[in-house]
Design goal:
Length: 114
């Protein structure tokens, strides 16, 4: 599989973070907010590290930087399984489905290269 560039990965992660933030504020229970906050924290750390890279490096293939991002796949799968209960707004839910498959593809490609 062709690896995603740093720029493309950053764009996908930022889109996911925006949706997770919306879902956090729309969540109806503390347990759902806790799950979303955990995932938001993991992706925020990775995005912060990616933002430290030079713009000149954004065309290179993406490689995981933080340890947390390596362990986020099961959390994303659990959120995907529970998405109808966790994500309340229809628009957020629809957008989440679209972006999640892209992010999961990026993360799974990283596991293959390890």
């Amino acid at each position: 599989m062709n690896q995603t560039s740093v720029a493309d990965t950053l764009r996908e992660y930022l889109s996911l973070l925006e949706l997770l933030d919306d879902a956090y504020w729309e969540a109806g229970t503390i347990a759902h907010k806790d799950m979303l906050y955990d995932i938001i924290s993991i992706f925020s750390q990775e995005v912060a590290e990616l933002n430290k890279l030079s713009i000149m490096d954004h065309h290179y293939p993406y490689e995981v930087i933080t340890e947390g991002i390596r362990r986020v796949i099961p959390k994303l799968e659990r959120l995907d399984d529970q998405r109808e209960d966790v994500i309340q707004r229809t628009q957020t839910l629809t957008d989440f489905r679209d972006i999640l498959s892209s992010v999961q593809g990026i993360l799974e490609a990283q596991l293959e290269t390890v």
